[in-house]
Write a structure and sequence with these properties.
alpha/beta, Glucose Oxidase, domain 1, Enzyme I, Chain A, domain 2, TIM Barrel, eight-stranded mixed beta sheet
Length: 580
């Protein structure tokens, strides 16, 4: 019987094939009490399990193929670091002794506690890292239960031309499956920053996550269609549905082939308007995808990855090494480095024993530039590294979540101090390195003309701008239906930002997800936007839209959108805009 399951599409494309179910046994954990004289032996049993888990991961690490994407392989190192972290290595020992309980139960209690910390985080990337904690714990639990061998892996024949279905995929799974002819991934859990999503995008194959309770309804070797565009899995499709999706597959293949032809073409509209089109990246390894699509520059390099999954922040040299990798890979193109954007719920050991109170709403609390200006031990090494990197290529620095001129003045004062030190020590840097600010707080959008004299360029971050404007948490399932890029207030703030920047001849671009969405490219052009920074997967599609656009009446139609509140009228206007 044919039926459909819905999840979250995290990598575009359509795949048709038989399913291979990756079955990792779930570990049921029970609690039992131990006599006092058995406690030391139980602690030793737990520590031996940690040791064997490390050995397993090190064995996997030694077998990683040379062509494996570094951002995927790095997850193995992350799991090794977690096994060393006191939260998983020391805290369970303390629980064993305090509760006089078995190691499995102590580890479960600690895992639940750590996972809760991650689930309460505001940042989606960090929240997704709870999957790493759970996978590390499952590995140790299996060893405690007597499963001391690595889980058996499917053969190359089983993986070739198959669609993988699993609860979730660990880093070891994704590394093993890379380049073995897998057509698509589908998992019951995970998000846009899960291992599955990262690997699927790097391999350019369709993927869907969040297919809750899918496995009870799907059997080994069932025929599946995975629609990564819509986040839909079709099980045992009929002939008519198969023909439809096979046709879509062919059309998508032709479309992708046509996009590759414009890779070297200039990004100019039909009537000759030049548009700046750059890419967003999170890891230096993302430059492989940037080069594949012919990216002209990096409009947003998120540096948060340098701070994740560690007890101490990176030093200046670690920052510099990462930045130089991107600059070298960009081969003369502009690289825009955004400074640290983490929130109040992500704390680092700054050498102080005084705990900082956690805010009740991290999205509105001590995050981004606010955190950096409070914690100069975090911020100054990054500023120094960015300045040093500027001597090696076309580097710009971008400041997140700016909402007051005083913040910009403070940053300029810090930079001037560092520049003076560098001059005295003959350390090279670009004295004219552009400094920019994100437009993601309504206050910034409304006062762009007042802020512009203090900066060299601006970049609109629609992800936060929309949620702050509409007072909704975009990752809260109960209210995220209100997240609307076409809300008149959002469009008016975007227009106000563009006009304010243009008034003082300051370049302004958009790096939020709205810029990567093909539905909104011509609308944004009509609102006056002349700079886009998009994810590499969307780059050629956005470029094609730009190069086939006649500006004509776009401005007039876009301005009509600013005065429209009816969803029906907006849909009609957007259709007219996209017909240009």
């Amino acid at each position: 019987m044919s039926f459909t399951l819905h999840g979250i599409g995290v990598s575009k494309g359509i795949a048709i094939g038989k399913v291979y179910i990756v079955d990792r046994d779930q570990i049921e954990v029970s609690e039992y009490n131990l006599a006092i004289h058995l406690i030391d032996a139980e602690v030793e049993r737990f520590e031996n399990a940690l040791k064997l888990a490390r050995e397993q991961l090190q064995r996997i690490q030694s077998q990683i193929p040379k062509d494996t994407s570094q951002d995927v392989a790095a997850f193995i190192e992350t799991h090794l670091l977690m096994l060393e972290d006191s939260l998983l290595s020391k805290a369970p020992v303390q629980l064993i002794r305090e509760l006089q309980c078995n190691a499995e139960w102590a580890l479960k209690l600690q895992c639940d506690s750590v996972v809760k910390i991650f689930e309460d985080m505001d940042d989606p990337y960090l929240r997704a890292r709870k999957d790493d904690v759970e996978q590390v714990v499952i590995r140790v639990q299996r060893i405690l239960r007597g499963y001391t061998d690595l889980p058996s892996d499917p053969t190359d024949e089983q993986l070739a031309n198959s669609i993988i279905l699993a609860d979730d995929l660990s880093p070891a799974d994704t590394i093993f499956m890379q380049h073995r002819g897998v057509l698509a991934f589908a998992t019951e859990y995970g998000g846009a920053t899960s291992h599955t999503a990262i690997l699927a995008r790097s391999l350019a194959i369709p993927a869907i996550v969040g297919l809750r309770r899918a496995r009870p309804y799907i059997r080994q070797d069932d025929m599946l269609i995975v629609d990564g565009f819509q986040g839909v899995v079709l099980v045992d499709p009929d002939e008519r549905t198969l023909r439809y999706y096979k046709t879509r597959q062919k059309e998508e293949k032709r479309y992708r082939a046509s996009l590759s032809k414009i890779k070297e073409a200039p990004t100019v509209t039909l009537d000759g308007t030049p548009i700046s089109l750059h890419t967003n990246i999170e890891f230096p390894e993302d430059m492989v995808a940037v080069r594949r699509v012919g990216g002209e520059g990096v409009g947003l390099y998120r540096t948060e990855f340098l701070f994740l999954n560690r007890q101490h922040p990176p030093d200046e040299e670690e920052h510099l090494e990462a930045y130089l990798r991107v600059i070298k890979a960009m081969r003369g193109g502009t690289v825009t480095i955004r400074t640290l954007d983490l929130g109040a719920d992500k704390r680092f050991d700054m050498g102080s024993k005084q705990e900082r109170p956690q805010g009740s709403n991290p999205a509105l609390g001590l995050r981004a530039i606010r955190l950096c200006l409070r914690e100069l031990k975090l911020f100054k090494p990054q500023l120094r590294a960015v300045l040093r990197a500027s001597a090696m290529g076309k580097v710009r620095m971008l400041l997140p979540m700016v909402c007051g001129v005083q913040e910009l003045v403070q940053v300029h004062n810090l930079l001037n101090e560092i520049r003076e030190e560098f001059r005295q020590k003959s350390i090279k840097f670009d004295p004219e390195m552009p400094i920019g600010a994100m437009v993601e707080v309504p206050a910034m959008a409304l006062c762009t003309d007042l802020f512009a004299p203090y900066i060299d360029f601006l970049s609109i971050g629609t992800n936060d701008l929309i949620q702050y404007t509409l007072a909704i948490d975009r990752v809260d399932d109960s209210v995220n239906y209100l997240y609307d890029p076409l809300h008149p207030a959002v469009l008016r703030l975007i227009k106000t930002s563009i006009d304010g920047a243009n008034k003082l001849s300051k370049p302004i671009s958009m790096c939020g997800e709205m810029a990567s969405d093909s539905r909104y490219v011509r609308l944004l052009l009509g609102l006056g936007l002349r700079g886009f920074s998009v994810n590499p997967e969307s780059y050629l599609e956005v470029k094609q839209i730009i190069t086939t656009t006649d500006m004509g009446n776009l401005e007039k139609l876009a301005n009509r959108m600013l005065k429209t509140s009816s969803h029906l009228d907006m849909a009609h206007l957007l259709e007219l805009i996209n017909a240009h």
